[in-house]
Design a protein that fits this description.
- By secondary structure, the protein is an alpha/beta fold.
- The protein folds into two domains: 181 residues, Rossmann fold; 116 residues, Phosphofructokinase domain (Rossmann fold, 3-Layer(aba) Sandwich).
- Helix content is 43%, strand content 18%.
- The chain contains eleven helices and eleven strands.
- The strands form two sheets. The chain has a seven-stranded mixed sheet with strand order 3-2-1-4-5-10-11, with helices on both faces. A four-stranded parallel sheet has the order 7-8-6-9, with helices on both faces.
- α1 runs parallel beside α9, α2 packs across α3 and α5 packs across α6.
- It starts with 7 loop residues before the first strand and ends with a helix.
- 48% of the residues are buried.
- It binds 6-O-phosphono-beta-D-fructofuranose (F6P).
- 6-O-phosphono-beta-D-fructofuranose binds next to loops.
- The site of 6-O-phosphono-beta-D-fructofuranose has 10 residues, from loops.
């Protein structure tokens, strides 16, 4: 399999952490070991690369982590790496350690950084999409999205219990940055009356009409799921509804970072394992400057240019239609 001269693969996690990142690290280390290639872990993403926080990872050092949330390699967002000087320091550290291949696990910021690093150093690198946001084109799913959405659904179910007891209207804000994926699918699974996402412009009047209708239809409680990237956030929407009518007893819950933690679901563990292996095998075949993705259950490699060319991971219109029909 090793058609290259690669002998040492550096692996790191970067950007916001996501459940399943540990499973991906484990997969990279164990796949590399399978092909008799060494692995080194780079701590704190690009920041650690600049500071030289690099150490050997063996198959035993990634034992007992597949089920753990967070990342044993830690994550950081790095402004220093955006500078030529920062990247030069990082590259010097990689060379000092003999790293001749890289696997980066993170979101689009991580990929952009990697692209610059490849341009400056020529070190082959492959990215693995790890972010709860599911906002990366070229893959049906990113690592962590399934776990985060399940966490959101569990929280929504709990909120429903108390909403029902008090006949309340809840606005529940979920993460996702500019993407409505977590919101849309947790709204469907949690039986929300409405979902507000950045990809679809629902006007306040439309939302208000929906809430009125649901009140008239004798709904005892109403849950509205709002993506954090929506034009109007959960607090603003709650305030606007309260200003228009005192009919509703309104509460707001912002789920926040609890969506980023927790043990990864089976889906994220398997996806991370598949992606880690695909990244290592891609490097050893001589691939570089690309991202692993999953398309209809199969591993694919996407050229960096294709995924970063301003493309967004389109929201599933059929899911949106489903959410609307079933909320009535
Ligand atoms: O990208 C993952 C994410 O959790 C987003 O959903 C959210 O907008 C952001 O990171 C929060 O970032 P931070 O942890 O830096 O506050």
């Amino acid at each position: 399999m090793n058609k290259t001269t690669i002998t040492k693969i550096g692996v790191f996690t970067s950007g916001g952490d996501a459940p399943g990142m540990n499973a991906a690290i484990r997969a990279v280390v164990r796949s590399a070991n399978y092909y008799q290639v060494e692995s080194l872990g780079i701590n704190r993403g690009y920041e650690g690369m600049i500071d030289g926080e690099i150490s050997k990872l063996g198959t035993r050092s990634v034992g007992n982590i597949i089920q753990r949330g967070g990342t044993i390699l830690k994550c950081a967002r790095s402004d220093n790496f955006r500078t030529k000087e920062g990247r030069a320091k990082a590259i010097a550290n990689l060379r000092k350690q003999g790293i001749d291949g890289l696997v980066a696990i993170g979101g689009d910021g991580t990929f952009r950084g990697m692209h610059e690093l490849i341009k400056d150093s020529g070190i082959p690198a492959i990215c693995v999409p790890g972010t709860i946001d599911n906002d990366i084109s070229g893959t049906d799913y990113t690592i962590g999205y399934d776990t985060a959405t399940n966490t959101a659904v569990e929280a929504i179910d709990r909120i429903r219990d108390t909403a029902l007891s008090h006949n309340r209207l809840f606005f529940i804000e979920v993460m996702g940055r500019h993407s409505g994926y977590i919101a849309l699918n947790s709204a469907i699974a949690g039986g929300a009356v409405a979902v507000i996402i950045p990809e679809e412009q629902t006007t306040f009047d439309e939302l208000y009409t929906l809430l009125e209708q649901s009140g008239k239809a004798n709904k005892k409680s109403s849950l509205v799921v709002v993506a954090e990237g929506a034009k109007l956030n959960a607090m603003e929407l709650a305030r606007m509804v309260a200003e228009r009518s005192n009919y509703f007893d309104i509460k707001v819950t912002i789920l926040g970072h609890l969506q980023r933690g927790g043990s990864p679901t089976y889906f994220d563990r398997v996806l991370a394992s598949q992606m880690g292996l695909a990244a290592v095998e891609g490097l050893l075949r001589g691939e570089k400057d690309c991202m692993v993705g999953t398309r209809n259950g199969k591993m694919v490699l996407n050229a960096f240019e294709d995924i970063m060319n301003g493309q967004v991971h389109e929201i599933d219109q059929e899911a949106l239609r489903l959410a609307k029909i079933l909320s009535t």
